[in-house]
Amino acid sequence: MKRFATKLVLWTSLVTLLSGCLYPESQKNENQIPYTDQIQSVQSAVEQYQENKAVLPIKTRDQDTPIYQKYPIDFKKLVPAFLQQAPGNSFEKGGVFQYVLIDVEENPTVRLIDLVTIEKVKDLQLRINDYRRKNDYPPFKDVLAKDRYSIDYDAMGMDEEMTVKSPFTNEQLPFFLDQNGDVHIDYTNDLTKAIENNPEHSYQNGDDIRDLLANNSFFVPVASVPYTIENDKAVFLVK
């Protein structure tokens, strides 16, 4: 009986240890919340750095990098002189957010990229690429607009459509493909709601209205394409 009790204690300890190993930093609740004070502290550090160095604390990216991923903050430049440490919810500290800047020319502003969203885009892209290798063409379904297509999940052998949770409305958003078979998130519904919630906006047909989301949220619309406004609704901006 004593030997059994000893084994039980050892087994419980092992399970506890393994549970800790299987519960990475990025899964902890505190690393999945966009705390206002953390964003504000990074904003202050960025402003101090720019005032002191006359440049922004960002990593270099190629010119063709999507606009909302183009200016990631380089915390190595901020810590420790301008910031004690990178935020706990940042990718650099095991969190699920990448800190980026928008409006870098006029008013550099800190925003977040949800890396869980990025991983879902990458996962679907891998599935699309696999289908394309076998069939020589992407799984296009319906034409949504010029060079914009819904995805034929049935042809891919998938039982249901893949969606991703919106950081702006918490609703599930669909994916779509462009003419090259690249995966994007469809923010049409989010943008239409943003138009309704910001009646004072000055956007006109032909303008890219995605900043309606970025300027009124902690987040940026990653994996997006340009949208414009038509009859007070968001539509794809295609040329």
Q: How is this structure best summarized?
A:
With 239 residues, the chain is an alpha+beta fold. It has helices at 2-21, 36-53, 75-78, 115-135, 188-197, 211-214, and strands at 97-102, 109-114, 140-145, 148-151, 163-165, 172-178, 183-185, 227-230, 233-236.
Describe this structure in words.
It is a single chain. With 239 residues, the protein is an alpha+beta fold. It contains six helices and nine strands. The strands form three sheets. Strands 3, 4, 5, 6 and 7 form a five-stranded antiparallel beta sheet that branches. The chain is globular and about 55 Å long.
- In helices, the fraction of residues equals 25-40%
Residue windows where pLDDT falls under 50 for at least 5 positions: 1-27
Strand count, sense and closure of the main sheet? Answer: 5 strands, antiparallel
- Number of helical segments? 6
Radius of gyration, in Å, reads 22 Å
| Pattern of helices and strands | HHHEEHEEEEEHHEE
When the domains are counted, the total is 2
Number of strands: 9
Structural class: alpha+beta
Distance between the termini: 78 Å
**Shape field:** globular
- Name the average pLDDT: 89
Strand content: 15-25%
Using brief descriptors, characterize the structure shown.
239 residues; alpha+beta; 2 domains; 5-stranded antiparallel beta sheet; disordered N terminus
